[in-house]
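ugh finaly. both done.
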Amino acid sequence: MMVLGVDYAIANTSNVAISKDGTLNLGGHSQRLREINNKGTILINSYGKALLTNVAIIVRR
């Protein structure tokens, strides 16, 4: 599992791939990715953490 600890840690990264058994945990941090090939799991917030106070926006272009 990859857990991101800061906003925009992988900003504008192209071609992020998450395998069938993989997990990308955004940890409640903002990220901007150019492309995601997702076959696994994407967590917006970490397990056991307080709910996010801001809105999660996912845009597909």
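ok and the 2nd:
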Amino acid sequence: METSAVFSNAATTIGGGFHRDTTNVGLLSRSPYLKTRFSFLPPNSKLQNHLRFNLPIANTTNYGTNNAQAVRVDSPLSVPSDTVDIDWDTIGFGLVNTDYMYTSKCALGGSFSKGELVPFGNIEINPSAGVLNYGQGLFEGLKAYRTEDGNILLFRPEENATRMTMGAERMCMPAPSIDQFVQAVKATVLANERWIPPPGKGSLYIRPLLIGSGSVLGLAPAPEYTFLIYVSPVGNYFKEGLSPINLIIETEMHRATPGGTGGVKTIGNYAAVLKAQGAAKARGYSDVLYLDSVHKNYLEEVSSCNIFVVKGNTISTPDIKGTILPGITRKSIIDVARDQGFQVEERAVTVDELLDADEVFCTGTAVVVSPVGSITYLGKRVTYGSDGVGLVSQKLYSTLTSLQMGLTDDKMGWTVKLK
């Protein structure tokens, strides 16, 4: 395999056999080429083992525009073949080790450094790190899709960046700028392009992490933070796919409380649901629906999804008041539903309204839209519909996924093309 690197402006050679061609704005990739704004780090002894990239902070936040200054790199040491040995028809929602991950560091009170792409693998961390001892950590989740015309689409990455910034403020952490977040996501996706499933076979799940990686013994914010992104190809989150799932309402344990951290995507929120979720799955349910911790009568959310209740032409979903995560898919479905003529209400929704609904569905990055086939509450099971997926769920799912996968025109301006 020819070792080459294409840069903009003149032709020179740098360490390790990488060549700079400044007569052309090139493309970073194996094949097809990566397209994102990069500058190559000075050569050093690590260059033979992995690729390093400085990601400049842009002066613009035009996320829908592909501002490509790119590099083409082909090397038997760093670039795997263009194909992967995966049966795309049977892939589920689980971790698949890919090629590269992105990492950047920041001191408390400082700004994140220009990040780098390194081979995916284990990270080294001190046992007294803030994330390990005091749970000082956040994560995000978004997806990249391969389109029929060979492009790659991201869905509203700036929304994830904004939500991470909000969560970081609550958790006393510095956050990468919105632009650095988006550019880092682009870089990580393109560096792992060969792992993106073919059109209609799944997506590349993107997991940005923000953790207190610095050592701290007493209860205090960590002195150092790491922003990290890794990716994995995925299929359906629920084994049912776009088939109705069965939920049970949890009446004893709660996901969040007023004044807590339920409204941000902090890591501890998810560990707290594992016990109830595990018990529910052991009994044959797909997941758990949580109620508010004060009245125990109002819907909050499923373990990792927002909940929607359909009655006639009205779609209701619990309003955001600090105990419910402001889901990006939730926000998108609300806009899509209103655009299609539904009346959407964000308000307190009671258990009785849920049990009397015509249709119920969940939303989330992993599931997109997941119809609910039954709800079990205090031993009573209520089913919804007899024809499988409800009409509203199917319509909203089809509309949103068609937009995400580039099958329809993006009139909302939500997708970001990487090529």
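summary for the 2nd one i guess: Residues 8-234 form a domain with the D-amino Acid Aminotransferase; Chain A, domain 1 fold (CATH 3.30.470.10).
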